[in-house]
Write a structure and sequence with these properties.
408 residues, alpha/beta, Aspartate Aminotransferase, domain 1, Aspartate Aminotransferase, domain 2, 4-stranded antiparallel sheet, globular, binds 4'-deoxy-4'-aminopyridoxal-5'-phosphate
């Protein structure tokens, strides 16, 4: 199949983009929350729901063999996509949140004790705060927080002094879901590893907007969700280095994660199944494999250039709007913009713009501590995906100006 080399050809693959909302053509700019799905993904989900349905790994019948092949094939797709070394390093979960919880439970059980610490950053999503906080409470450990500066950048000047011998793991986001900043994860991993500290990366946004190579990055864990990268909801991935995953005890028990069960003692299956208890979301996993193939069939330069154009276009126009505050460093970011407007509540702006067909996010964006850091309770966020165009960015700017006129 020829590679897709044009944004309009990408758009044609997404039926959701053809609809009108509130009588206006949809301009969907809430991709940071969830993205739409291309036809190839939708078709596969429909096909599996209507025909190719059989529980994986368990039966000898044909339908089970087909779903097992789709499920394990998707594992190979993920492995290739993030350049992992071994298929055993790819664990299917229900999403980023489940992946964080898996590590916060399993890794902490054997590594965290009273007096230890976990280091996160001040710009984390609740999903990469709360599970660690719960683990710290359980084991009498302390949650330490790497501060950010006024532009939202990690205070890398403070990192070394915070990496004390009590820190047993560092857990940070690759790209902030509020600021859109691409964080210096390579440097952080290298500095942590110099001290023998493993690093967990929340890649919920990172996987969508950068070429992730876990082998080059050398991170110990990398987590992401399918639904933000054009696949189904309820599926996600935890990548973990094989030797670390091997020594971790399973978090959830059940079918498929066992080697042998007696009432006296259970032995566990080998990786990756050790961490995949119960019937997994095999249709979701297959949809993720399909989404990866879809992404791989698009000219990568096209995606990079479109993102760059949108970032520059948006930044140049937003900074000129009176009373508008843009959050975060605008130099090294993905097309995701969080802002506030003097005298207008973000939810009111979002509601007015919804009437104009523009879908935005407003509120705390699951990042209450980050809102506090910027002395606000709420922001308005526009987040772009591969199918968004400069015309849509222009429409967003025009509608925003109209909404501000109505409210301020
Ligand atoms: N981390 C980040 C940076 C995110 O953007 C999100 C989703 N907004 C999550 C974690 C949680 O992802 P999910 O809800 O898919 O588990």
């Amino acid at each position: 199949m020829d590679k897709i080399t044009d944004i309009s050809d990408i758009r044609r693959e997404f039926p959701a983009l053809e609809q009108s909302v509130n009588g206006k053509p949809l301009v969907y700019l809430d991709n940071g929350a969830t993205s739409h799905k291309p036809k190839s993904v939708i078709d596969l989900i429909n096909e599996m729901n209507s025909r190719t349905n059989g529980n994986i790994h368990r039966a000898v019948h044909e339908l089970s063999a087909r779903t097992t092949a789709l499920y394990e094939g998707a594992r190979e797709d993920v492995m290739r996509f993030i350049n992992a070394r071994h298929r055993e390093e790819i664990i299917f979960t229900s999403g980023t949140t489940a992946s964080v919880n898996l590590v916060a439970n399993s890794f902490s059980a054997s590594h965290l004790k009273k007096g230890d610490s976990v280091l996160i950053s001040q710009s984390e999503h609740h999903s990469n705060i709360v599970p660690w906080q719960m683990a710290c409470e359980r084991y009498g450990a302390t949650l330490k927080v790497l501060p950010i500066d006024d532009e939202g950048n990690w205070r890398m000047d403070l990192l070394d002094s915070m990496l004390t011998s009590e820190v047993k793991i560092v857990a940070v986001a690759h790209i902030s879901n509020v600021l859109g900043i691409v964080n210096p994860v390579e440097e952080l991993v290298s500095r942590c590893h110099n001290r023998g500290i493993p690093v967990f990366i929340d890649g919920a946004q990172g996987i969508v907007h950068s070429s992730v190579d876990v082998t080059a990055l050398d991170c110990d864990f990398y987590a992401f969700s399918g639904h933000k990268m054009y696949a189904a909801t309820g599926i996600g991935v935890l990548y973990g280095k094989k030797d670390i995953l091997e020594e971790m005890q399973p978090w959830m028990g059940g079918g498929d994660m066992v080697s042998s069960v007696t009432f006296e003692k259970t032995t566990y299956a080998a990786l990756p199944l050790k961490f995949e208890a119960g019937t997994p979301n095999f249709i979701g996993a297959a949809s993720l494999g399909q989404a990866i193939k879809f992404i791989e069939n698009i000219d990568h330069t096209l995606l990079l250039e479109n993102e760059k154009r949108i970032v520059e276009f948006m930044r140049d126009r937003l900074i000129k709007i009176d009373g508008l505050k843009l959050y975060g460093n605008v130099d090294n970011k993905i097309p995701l913009f969080s802002l506030s407007i003097k005298g207008a509540h973000p939810s009111d702006v979002a509601m007015i713009m919804d009437k104009m067909g523009v879908a935005l996010r407003s509120g705390q964006m699951c990042s209450e501590p980050l809102m506090k850091r910027f002395n606000t309770e709420s922001m308005l966020r526009a987040s772009f995906a591969m199918y968004n165009t400069l015309d849509e960015a222009q429409y967003f700017i025009d509608c925003l100006k109209r909404a501000i006129k109505m409210l301020v």
